[in-house]
Write a structure and sequence with these properties.
Shape: elongated
CATH class of the largest domain: Alpha Beta
Number of domains: 3
Strand order of the largest sheet: 4-3-5-15-6
Distance between the termini: 53 Å
Number of strands: 15
Order of helices and strands: HHHEEHEHHEEEEHEEEEHEHEEEH
Helix content: 40-55%
Structural class: alpha+beta
CATH superfamily of the largest domain: Periplasmic binding protein-like II
C-alpha cells in the first residue's frame, strides 16, 4: 500500500472508529460499505495486526487498534491543517478586506500606494481604518491590524514589516536661531515637541547611557502635527525614521547626533508589524496586502 491509499485507509479507519460502524462511516464518507470493509482489511494486512474486533452487533478496538487510532487521528489533523495552511496561495485575492493602521502611517506609507494596490488587485474591496488604539480584531471584524512598537497580544500572529529607528531632528531655521547641540547634555536648554507627554528620553552610545527629561514646549498625540511643528522651527523632536524620509531628503529636517541610539521611556518604537488572527489559514487577500505593503513600508 503506497502513501496515498494508506492515508485514505487511515482516514476511513478513523471514521469507522468515531462513527461506531462500517455503515455509518460509509454514509459519512460517501462510499459503499464493502469499500469501507476492503480499506480496513487492506490496512490491517499492511500493518500485520488486527485493529478492530467485529461481531454482528459490536465493533471495538483492539489494543493495537487503540494505539493506531490515537496516532492516526493526529496525522489526519496534521494533514488537514497542512492543506489549509497553503490554501491561501491557491486562491485569487478577492473579497472584502478590512485593515486598521495608525493615522500617520496610513498617510505616509499606505495612502500614497492605494491606487497601485487597487489596480493590482481589482477583485479586492478594501476598507481602511485609521486607529491608534488597541482593537479587538474579532469583535471589529478586522482582517489585519498594523501597529508600531512590540507585539504584546499572543492570541494573534505578529508579522514583522520593518524595523523603526528614532531620530533626533530639528529644522535648519531652529538650529540657526538656537544653536546646534553636540551631546545629549546640551539638549537641556532646548525646546521640544513631544508625543503625548512622553518626555523621558534615553540616549546611548558606546555603552554610555544618558537620560534627559525633554523640555516640552508643545505636546501632541498626532505624529503628523509633531512633524509639521518641527519643520516650522518650533523645536527638536524625536521621530520614527520611516515617517520623515521626505523631510530629511528635502532638507526641511536635519538629523542630529546620528551616532546615538534613542529610546523614549514607556513608548516602545522598535518595528512595524501586522497582526493576523488565524493560526491556520491566511486568505489570499490578506497575503496580497502584506506582500504589497511590506516592501512599501521599508522603502
Amino acid at each position: 500500500m503506497d502513501e496515498s491509499p494508506l492515508l485514505s485507509a487511515m482516514q476511513t479507519f478513523v471514521s469507522v472508529v468515531e462513527s461506531g460502524s462500517f455503515s455509518e462511516s460509509a454514509r459519512r464518507l460517501g462510499l459503499s460499505q464493502p469499500s469501507v470493509s476492503r480499506q480496513i482489511n487492506a490496512l490491517e494486512n499492511q500493518l500485520g495486526v488486527r485493529l478492530l474486533q467485529r461481531t454482528t452487533r459490536n465493533l471495538s478496538l483492539t489494543e493495537a487498534g487503540q494505539i493506531y487510532y490515537e496516532k492516526a487521528r493526529l496525522i489526519q489533523r496534521a494533514v488537514t491543517e497542512a492543506s489549509q495552511a497553503i490554501s491561501g496561495f491557491k486562491e485569487q485575492p478577492a473579497g472584502l478586506l478590512r485593515v486598521s493602521a495608525p493615522h500617520t502611517w496610513v498617510e505616509a506609507k499606505i495612502a500614497p500606494h492605494l491606487g497601485e494596490f487597487m489596480r493590482t488587485y481589482p477583485d479586492i474591496r478594501l476598507e481602511l481604518f485609521c486607529n491608534d488604539s488597541r482593537q479587538d480584531m474579532v469583535e471589529e471584524r478586522l482582517d489585519l491590524v498594523i501597529r508600531v512598537g512590540r507585539p504584546a497580544d499572543s492570541s494573534y500572529i505578529a508579522i514583522p514589516f520593518c524595523k523603526v529607528k528614532l531620530l533626533l531632528c530639528a529644522s535648519p531655521d531652529y538650529l540657526a536661531q538656537a544653536g546646534q547641540p553636540k551631546t545629549p547634555a546640551d539638549l537641556h536648554n532646548h525646546s521640544f515637541i513631544v508625543f503625548d507627554k512622553f518626555t523621558k528620553t534615553l540616549f546611548s552610545h558606546k555603552q554610555e547611557l544618558y537620560s534627559i527629561n525633554l523640555n516640552a514646549r508643545l505636546t501632541s498625540n498626532s505624529v503628523a502635527a509633531i512633524i509639521s511643528a518641527t519643520v516650522q522651527g518650533t523645536g527638536f523632536s524625536v521621530l520614527p525614521d520611516l515617517l520623515i524620509q521626505q523631510e530629511l531628503n528635502s532638507g526641511k529636517l536635519l538629523q542630529l547626533m546620528p551616532e546615538q541610539q534613542i529610546e523614549i521611556e514607556g513608548l516602545p518604537v522598535e518595528e512595524v508589524f501586522a497582526m493576523y488572527s488565524s493560526r491556520i489559514q491566511m486568505p489570499a487577500k490578506v497575503r496580497a496586502f502584506l506582500e504589497f505593503f511590506k516592501t512599501r513600508f521599508a522603502e
